[in-house]
Amino acid sequence: MKKLIIRLLIALVVVVILAILAVGLLLDGAVKRGVETFGPKLTKVDIKLQSVSLSLFSGAGTIKGLLVGNPEGFKTPSAIRVGEATLALKPGSLLSDKIVIKTINVQAPEITYETDLKHNNLSQILANMRETTGAGGKELTKPQEPSQPKEPKPAKKLQVDEFVITGGRIHVSATGLVQGTAMIPLPDIRLHNLGTGPDGVTPAELAKIVLEAIETKAAQAAAGAVADIGKGALYITKDLDNPGSNAVQNVTKGLGGLFKKKQ
After folding, report:
1. How far is CA 38 from CA 43, 48, 50, 207, 222, in A?
2. What is the pLDDT of residue 244?
3. Please, is 202 exposed, middle or buried when counting C-beta atoms within 10 Å of its C-beta (0-12, 13-18, 19+)?
4. DSSP class of residue 77?
5. What is the 3-state secondary structure (H, E, C) of 141-197?
6. Within the chain, which residues score under 70 in pLDDT?
7. Secondary structure class of 131 (helix, strand, coil)
8. Angle at 217 between CA 77 and CA 64, to 5 degrees
9. Of 1, 152, 202, 237, whose CB has the highest number of CB atoms within 10 Å?
């Protein structure tokens, strides 16, 4: 009888472990599907995610291979690439209305800042997000038909105590009359106490806050290169009517030197 009880207890433990593993796998898959399904609707660009791994015991997680595409009309293949990001959350909060994430750490993202001296790809993605969400950052949905009285299930709210982006690089790409590229470091970004109020923040609100911070830092860091490109374009415009000026050749050569210095 004693052996039977021990076997039953062992079997029960195995079943519980398998159930937890299954829930973890389902949760990982749900996060990946959510990012790749909800993300493009919010930003109007392609979003791909290689994998998500989350431990229900420790609350530690890893996100790998995030790629955010560019809006229509831009030439570079992507706006944001993240090889790996780690996070730590409170496991118990997964069962509550607000998931509490203690920290998100994005390491060495590759940011592309493509501009024609009037618009840039990151601000266009932000404009897309503002169009698909209201002022509060909630995704806009069509009003339900009378035959569909069922209310949509509210999205989980989030609280992020710390969101850190470090070691990033910006690929500056100028298009239009004068073309050139440069690579410069992305200043570190540290955001704190996001959604700490009782209402938290939605995933859409969090995405918009983070992208706004990235766009601001990228624009500030790339300002010098973009300003020099703008001066070169103005110089060309003024000298195009002078056949002996060699304006295009001189400015192109000057820009080449500028970008080599910044790399």
Report:
1. 9, 11, 16, 11, 30
2. 44
3. buried
4. S
5. CCCCCCCCCCCCCCCCEEEEEEEEEECCEEEEEECCCCCEEEEEECCCEEEEEECCC
6. 1-30, 134-155, 177-178, 225-263
7. helix
8. 50
9. 202
pLDDT digits (tens, 9 = 90+) for 78-133: 999 999 999 999 988 888 889 999 999 999 999 999 988 788 999 999 999 999 98
- Provide the 8-state DSSP code for 71: P
Task: Determine the Cα–Cα distance for residues 257 and 207; give it in Å rounded to an integer.
Answer: 37
Q: Are 229 and 254 in contact (CB under 8 A)?
A: no
Interstrand relation of 157-166 and 98-107 (parallel, antiparallel or unpaired):
parallel
Tokens encoding 225:
């290169």
Cα 200 from Cα 206, distance rounded (Å): 10
pTM above 0.85, yes or no: no
Give pairs for 134-143: CB < 8 Å, separation 24+. Answer: 136/205, 137/201, 137/202, 137/204, 137/205, 137/208, 138/202, 138/204, 138/205, 139/38, 139/41, 139/42, 139/204
Domain boundaries, the chain: 2-133+157-262
Q: Which two tokens stand for residue 236?
A: 């060309």
Residue 27 has a pLDDT of 52
Single-letter amino acid, residue 33: R
Which alpha helices (H) appear in the chain, and where do they start and end?
2-43, 121-132, 203-239, 247-262
Q: What's the pLDDT at 259?
A: 42
User: Residue 249's pLDDT is what?
Assistant: 44
